[in-house]
């Protein structure tokens, strides 16, 4: 795909049909700032005050990583490169994905 082009070949967003459904996520009041997919089913959401949520069912259910609550940082960006993943946070925080899975397995 060309840079800036949609992967399905649509010329503009008016040709793309997306279906969304409501999902309640307990983020403890902290905003979700980024979402990253490690695979089609394993997904991570990050946000303020060390918020780190993981899902192993493409976002149908979420598990909060409470150990991340102890990191004094806001998380801004999550990115995966095949089996390697990184979370960038404030104050120079950089977390590396260790392959334990969204549910801590």
UniProtKB/TrEMBL annotation:
InterPro entries: PSII_CF48-like_dom. Pfam families: PSII_BNR (PF14870). It comes from the Eukaryota. Residues 19-97 form the Photosynthesis system II assembly factor Ycf48/Hcf136-like domain. This is Photosynthesis system II assembly factor Ycf48/Hcf136-like domain-containing protein. It comes from Diacronema lutheri.
